[in-house]
Amino acid sequence: MSVSHTSWTTKFLAVVRYEILWNIRKKKFLGMLVVAFALATLSLAGGHIASAITGEPVKADPDFVVGSSVGLGGLGFFLFALVTTMNIISAEFESGTIVPLLAKPVSRTTVFFGKLFAAFLTLLATYCFLMIYMAIGGFVVYGPQNNLHLVPLSLLGALFSTLIWISIVLFFGTLSRSSLIAALGALGVWLGTTIIGSILAVLAGQGWILTYIPGSGTIGYVGEPPPPVGVGVAVSVSTGTDSIGPNLINYILHPSWEVTYYKIDIGAPIPGGIWVKLYSEPLSTVILTSIAVALVYFIVFVAISWYVFRRAQVTE
Q1: Is 226 helix (H, G, I), strand (E, B) or coil?
Q2: pTM (2 decimals)?
């Protein structure tokens, strides 16, 4: 039994090594680091860009790093999931390398999860680079930073937020065996949840729908009900899977926060409309729900992709 376990571990690590070396040869990992550096730098430079436009000096922001979610937002999580995963399975079919790969004494399950784990390691290395760069850059640009010990929660949240998109991209890529369809299918899901979901949440008051789909979710508020649109001063909280990291940090700092949801009454006489209260819930509930949704989507889509890959017919 021990020999069998060791043999499977060796094969699994061989697949992981194969995939990582492939990423290095294709310069995928280097490209991800370059993109990560560019996005993080743009996030850090935001204050200076605004200062150049408005003429106001850049203000110190001791909470910039803990609130930056490793310098990425929903679009960043989606793009990194796309680059990391769109061709880990489909490219093998497109190039024909799936034939010699599956001819080796390695099960399809080992191949599938070995490639997926290699993608996760690539993503983890990229996000660790981002976390360190943002911590140093935030200190340089915005002065001494508070609560830097909570920054790893941003890393954990970013991984959760990206894994859900990884599973969706993997699903389309495995089902179609096409990197292009994997990219377009996942992009369609992202656009649908981002645009249509926002309309449902704000105008129709159906923000609860966004609780169960990936993305930015709906917006809730902490404190007094917000004034008419455009002049609100309440603390906003994004409740979707893209905001797991910031919400974890907010919960550590403010465990008693209650998040209240509203919709816009466009028929109100006040210019810009008024907010109509829907319901409230603890921030802890928001976090647990978003984590559960991310895990369920990841497990379901990965399980379907694994099943399809195991049943896929391979012809030379």
Answers
A1: coil
A2: 0.83
